[in-house]
Amino acid sequence: MDQIIEQWRRCQLESGPYLLDGDKHLLKYRKKYVFYKTFNEFIQSEEFGLSNAKFHLGLIPIPYMGNIQDSSIFILMSNPGLSNIDYHAEQYNAVYKDALKNNLRQENIDTRFPFVCLNPEFSWHAGF
């Protein structure tokens, strides 16, 4: 568990593409991912409104949710999906984006709402 957390802590989260260092070789497979830097880029793209299986490297990754070091059970799920609001949320709501970064790095997690999507402050987001 500590190894995966350490890898994500080393991940550059100031601007995309958001990838682990060991995954950067995947950038050569252009048909498997998209990289939009802004909400406007996304809504003007061919991908907008589509349900697809491409990786969106312009969004903060969410490989896990909550305090995984102190958890006693884990619920394994498939891809959580993509909502049209995701790019808007990360670009225009710094508190939400910081919560995602904290979750990924497992640092400064809100103890009242360790599962970011259940925080009432983010009830406007599709994940709620």
Polypeptide structure, described:
With 128 residues, the protein is mainly alpha-helical. The chain has one domain (2-122). The protein is 26% helix and 3% strand. The mean pLDDT is 89.
Order of helices and strands: HEHEHH
Number of helices, counting only DSSP H or I runs of 4 residues or more: 4
* Strand order, sheet with most strands: 1-2
Span between N and C termini? 26 Å
The proportion of strand residues reads: under 5%
The number of strands is 2
Largest sheet: 2 strands, parallel
Parts with pLDDT < 50 across at least 5 consecutive residues: none
Coarse structural class: mainly alpha
Q: Compute the average pLDDT.
A: 89
Share of residues in helices: 25-40%
Oligomer: single chain
Inertia-based shape: globular
* Tally of separate domains: 1
Rg over CA atoms? 15 Å
